[in-house]
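Render this sequence as a predicted structure.
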Amino acid sequence: MTSSLFSLENKTALVTGALGLIGRQHCHALSDSGANVIVCDLDEDKCIEFASELGPNTIGISADITEQDSVKQLCKESESVFGQIDILVNNAAINDMFESPALASEQSKFENYPVELWKRSIDVNITGMFNCCQVIGTGMASRNYGSIINIASTYGVVAPDQALYIDENGTQKFYKSASYPVTKGAVISFTRFLAAYWGKNGVRVNTLSPGGVENHQDEFFILNYSKKTPLGRMAKPSDYKGALIFLASDASSYMTGANLIVDGGFTIW
């Protein structure tokens, strides 16, 4: 049956950044499709709490993905419970937030953007992904099976439209900083590198690039974004479940090195 292609029964999936808005949905999708799920984020207690909500075939483990020793321990603990890891979802990322809305416009300008924030984004968004792929993906390659899904963004494909952040009064409330699109572009390039490198080992590596998710943003931003999107709305957090399961499962068995863009058409014009 065609539906069996999407089954993840007897597979184990690890999701980083699992406590985030989309990360939680990734975990639900994987669990609903039959996978054992490892919920990974920085807060151990919250990982365990969320894992308990998902069901008996889920565990929560904290890790700092910027530290390779922490990722090695994560891998060791995961394998001690479920055995091999078959699916890795590199979802953890930093998307700049500024504490003071009044100062956000000036602080987010490229001319003023702190190099410390730039370095932090590279550390989490790129080095963290590298660590997880190297530690967990190496095990996949040794077994000649695995699916790695790196979460990028439409801003890894096209430049940010700064006009989206102009309110109804013509005030630039915020600038999308350089670090996010640069690191998300790197995610896509790294995916292609690994797909070529591990193709002979049966490890598929693909990118999922989501569009913007509605999450209590200012009304002017939601309207601006929706007008720029052919489907006329921002994404719901659950809109990426199907794409994730497709990439994780045998339904995409002849797909590697690809960037699956799910954005309501945002990048077509």
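Summary. The mean pLDDT is 96. The CA atoms of residues 20 and 170 lie 31 Å apart.
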